[in-house]
Structure prediction request, 236 residues.
Amino acid sequence: MSLLDVKDLKVAYGGIQAVKGVDFHIEAGELVTLIGANGAGKTTTLKTLIGMVKKSGGSVTFDGKDASTIPSHDFVRHGLAMVPEGRGIFGKLTVEENLLMGAYTRSDKAQILVEMERVYGLFPRLKERYKQLAGTLSGGEQQMVAMGRAILSRPKLLLLDEPSMGLAPIIVQKIFEIVRMVAAEGVTMLLVEQNAKLALEVSQRGYVMESGKITMTGNAQDLLADERVRNAYLGD
Ligand SMILES: Nc1ncnc2c1ncn2[C@@H]1O[C@H](COP(=O)(O)OP(=O)(O)OP(=O)(O)O)[C@@H](O)[C@H]1O
Ligand SMILES: [Mg+2]
Prediction:
């Protein structure tokens, strides 16, 4: 059974269909990328997975459960964490407080401290700035906080929406390096990215979304080599 199984998912905003019946699945341990143009419905799809947006049709099965039976405040406890577009960090809290928010459903204090150190190992910049208010961090640093916080919730599935958006190339490289490392530790991920090339390079599989529909799917290597993908998303 797949960790995530989405069937014929439909989402409408006031009569306008943003997602028009998509099917996809993610197996435990996979890193899967969803690419597509602006407005294709990628963020909407992710939001629907964690109950932030209500679907109008279809089904989402996560870890053997019908996801629509999970209350929206309970997704983290069920193992679904999302790093949203725009990051959703708490600007008035410190770096350390933001990271600890990720572990709020956990009671294993000693282990949380061990993992905090591991997150600081991934992002040494955050360690240097652990008392700084997150709202005063640079964009790249805020992205690191958002990812660190999600990692601390120990997700079964981590949803990343445009982690490289608005960041300088060197920071983008760093973020993708972290994605690779987190994946290597066995965390299953669904990555939504405008930077299709980097995203496909770290992924095993990918889906292409156009105007609310999945129009292509395959191994990341095959998608990278596909002429239509190259023309539309890789700028070749
Ligand atoms: N809250 C909303 N109310 C009405 N329409 C919305 C809402 N959120 C998104 N939409 C519309 O749904 C469509 C899909 O938007 P979505 O944010 O899912 O796209 P996306 O693929 O994530 O795009 P981008 O790459 O620009 O982030 C767009 O046409 C958008 O305008
Ligand atoms: Mg989006």
